[in-house]
Design goal:
The complex is a heterodimer of chains A (273) and B (387). With 273 residues, chain A is α/β, with parallel strands linked by helices. Chain A contains 10 helices and 10 strands. In chain A, strands 1, 2, 3, 4, 5, 6, 7, 8, 9 and 10 form a 10-stranded mixed β-sheet that branches. Chain B has 387 residues and is mainly alpha-helical. Chain B has a domain at 66-282 and 298-339: MetI-like fold. Chain B contains 13 helices and 2 strands. Chain B has helices at 2-11, 19-65, 68-72, 88-119, 122-134, 140-187, 193-223, 233-258, 261-269, 274-303, 306-311, 332-339, 349-384; strands at residues 76-77, 84-85. A two-stranded antiparallel sheet of chain B has the order 1-2. Chain B is flat and about 80 Å long. The chains are: A alpha/beta (273), B mainly alpha (387).
Chain lengths: 273, 387
């Protein structure tokens, strides 16, 4: 849904630009990719359009789609919440592209539960057991007697891949009864409405409707993510096909500016610079 | 008459058409016919093209992976290393919600159609039918949003109570009707009028108490159920059932109307009651049309994507036990929609083609059911016309 909506928005934006026919409307920047990086890319885009007069369109269709768009040449910047896979790099090279990743911020993968759940902390091992299906009741991890409902993301999600890599293990199957949701927002929504549910979202998506739990005794917050104590953290990337130049380079260097740092912080991400 | 024709011929030569004009008319007619034929053929060709292109991209999957994993394995891990493409649980999920929605939509739809065509007065029907048909105009994403944001939490918080009320609402009129009919049938054996009445009343009291007990005991058990996840097969089945309703009601009502007044009046004239007329005359006569409506409605439920994608929970497993509608499931349509993003010709081709295999499977299922219903309709028509 997000993807179609994003596409529709992009199409609408392009149409508007085409119709307005402004003389100074230079080549615009097209961004596609991660739903986690989406809010950041959008606020960068709004600022860039306002200050530089360059239209920027942002679609959120998942890291995998971002990489695909970049390889197929339908976007200038792919936003990704994971690094490119070897197959994607190979595909890019076969088309004569040399993708360059740029870290624009850091993000913690927050484990969240329903606020009514008394569990405050889990170890990485316990979380892995829950997602493998070895632990199925909250009683087994110090909670009330209730079934655990693990919520995961769709397979095109960078968040999902990061989670699998950091917690469950790349070669291990997530239990088949785990629910699958399409975006960070949808996961948060399901967990805020479901007592027995557990899930993972980007740190910026956590709000009072859900409860963050500590992982290995460390609560995800800007400090613990930046100094590396929080075990589930990752860099957020903007990937370009080759070294960026001109407007695209200016856009990618936004996080290094004061304005950019402020936007990163406001959205709940952790600045790298 | 002969004289009249001669008079007409004599008076208006306009009816005599010159050979040139006649050939022009013929040409126009041929052109019109061929245009209509082209349009009709175009629609048929589109169907064939869809089938061809879906099949073309589905075949490579079976070439790479063979048939057995897809149809017999319940593990669906397309992104893992190594990937597993078992679609059995997903096929089962699709069939499960389709069956669930059929159970909800068919009795409701046919009852509503009978009510519209034979029970309600015309002045009321005029307004009720368009309102029911308006259900079809609600976009599926709106249904999905309702299912996810309102209905799912409701099921989680008040699930048992909701189930109990649903049981009471559905079962109490049915049980009442059943006890009335049963006591009547059982008492009909007594020839003596007084004893018959007494027998009937006492039996009615007995059956009534038994049904009340049944209502209470099952209701209590249902209330004790706690629904862990509201995004489950039941939720989706109910919503899909409501989405299929307008089609079934509309088509079935048209079929019932088409039976005609003479058939109904003939039945009444032979001394049949209204119930007998509806059950024994009108329903069989309209059955082919009703079946067509039912197939159309069920196909909509099978092919619906947005609602199941949002509200079925998307967990690719066969519920435990297999008839547990309170568990999350995943359907073919939702899998195609959800995995489309990653399915990429560049990275991992089996993963791309498996979605086409699923699309092909859906196409084949709808073709088969359309074919079967077509056959039934034809046979029914033959029976009714007395051949």
């Amino acid at each position: 849904m997000t993807r179609q909506f994003g596409r529709a928005l992009a199409a609408g934006a392009i149409l508007l630009i085409a119709m307005s026919g402004r003389a100074e409307a230079k080549s615009d920047i097209v961004i596609d990719g991660s739903t986690t990086v989406g809010p950041l890319a959008k606020s960068f885009a709004a600022w860039f359009t306002k200050t530089r007069g360059v239209p920027v369109t942002v679609s959120e269709s998942g890291s995998g789609n971002g990489a695909k768009s970049l390889i197929n040449g339908t976007c200038d910047i792919a936003t990704m919440s994971r690094s490119m896979k070897p197959e994607e790099l190979a595909a890019a090279r076969s088309k004569g592209l040399a993708p360059v990743p740029h870290v624009i911020a850091l993000d913690g993968l927050a484990m969240i539960v329903n606020p009514a759940n008394p569990v405050k902390s889990l170890t990485k091992r316990q979380i892995a057991d829950i997602y493998k299906g070895a632990v199925t009741n909250w009683r087994q991890v110090g909670g009330p007697d209730a079934r655990i409902l693990p919520v995961q993301r769709e397979s095109n999600s960078g968040t999902q891949e990061t989670f699998k890599e950091l917690v469950v293990g790349k070669k291990v199957h997530v239990v088949a009864s785990a629910e699958t949701q399409a975006s960070n927002g949808a996961v948060k929504n399901r967990i805020s409405l479901t007592k027995g549910a557990i899930g993972f979202v980007g740190l910026g998506f956590v709000d009072p409707s859900v409860k963050k739990i500590a992982v290995d005794g460390v609560v995800a917050d800007p400090v613990s993510v930046r100094d590396g104590r929080y075990p589930l953290s990752r860099p957020l990337l903007m990937v370009t096909a080759g070294e960026p130049s001109g407007l695209v380079r200016d856009f990618i260097e936004l996080p290094k500016t004061l304005e950019g740092m402020k936007m990163v912080k406001e959205l709940g991400f952790i600045g790298k610079y | 008459m002969n004289g009249e024709a001669q008079a007409t011929e004599g008076r208006s030569p306009a009816f005599v058409v010159s050979p040139l004009r006649r050939s022009l008319q013929k040409a126009t007619k041929t052109a019109g016919h061929s245009l209509l034929f082209l349009v009709a053929a175009f629609v048929a060709v589109i169907v064939l093209f869809i089938f061809f292109f879906v099949a073309r991209d589905a075949v490579p999957f079976f070439q790479i992976k063979g048939f057995s994993e897809f149809f017999t394995d319940t593990r669906w891990y397309p992104a893992d290393d190594p990937p597993v493409f078992g679609a059995l649980a997903i096929i089962y999920g699709s069939l499960m919600v389709t069956a669930g929605s059929a159970v909800i939509a068919i009795p409701m739809g046919i009852s509503a159609a009978i009510c519209l065509s034979d029970v309600l007065p015309f002045s009321v029907r005029q307004y009720v039918k368009p309102v029911i048909e308006m259900l079809a105009a609600v976009p599926s994403v709106a249904f999905g949003f309702f299912a996810l944001v309102i209905f799912a939490p409701m099921l989680q918080n008040y699930g048992g109570t909701l189930l109990m009320w649903a049981w009471w609402l559905i079962a109490s009129p049915l049980l009442l009707l059943a006890s009335l009919v049963l006591s009547e049938i059982a008492a009909a054996r007594f020839p003596d009028e007084k004893r018959r009445k007494l027998m009937q009343r006492s039996l009615l009291a007995l059956f009534g108490t038994a049904s009340l007990g049944l209502l209470f005991v099952i209701g209590r058990n249902l209330q004790a159920i706690e629904i862990v996840t509201g995004t489950n097969a039941l939720n989706v089945s109910i919503i899909l059932g409501f989405m299929a309703l307008p089609t079934i009601v509309s088509v079935a009502e048209d079929a019932l109307q088409a039976v005609g007044r003479d058939m109904r009046e003939g039945s009444y004239a032979l001394g049949a009651t209204r119930a007998e007329t509806i059950v024994k005359i009108i329903l069989p006569a309209a059955s082919s049309g009703i079946l067509a409506g039912v197939i159309l409605g069920i196909m909509r439920a099978l092919g619906e994507t947005m609602v199941v994608w949002m509200a079925s929970g998307n967990s690719s497993h066969i519920p435990d036990p297999w008839f547990n509608y309170l568990d999350s499931i995943r359907t073919l349509t939702a899998t195609i929609a959800g995995d489309m993003g990653e399915a990429d010709q560049v990275t991992g081709s089996a993963r791309f083609h498996v979605l086409f295999a699923m699309g092909l499977l859906l196409l084949v299922i709808s073709f088969i059911s359309n074919f079967i219903s077509e056959r039934i309709v034809v046979r029914q028509r033959k029976v009714l016309s007395g051949q």
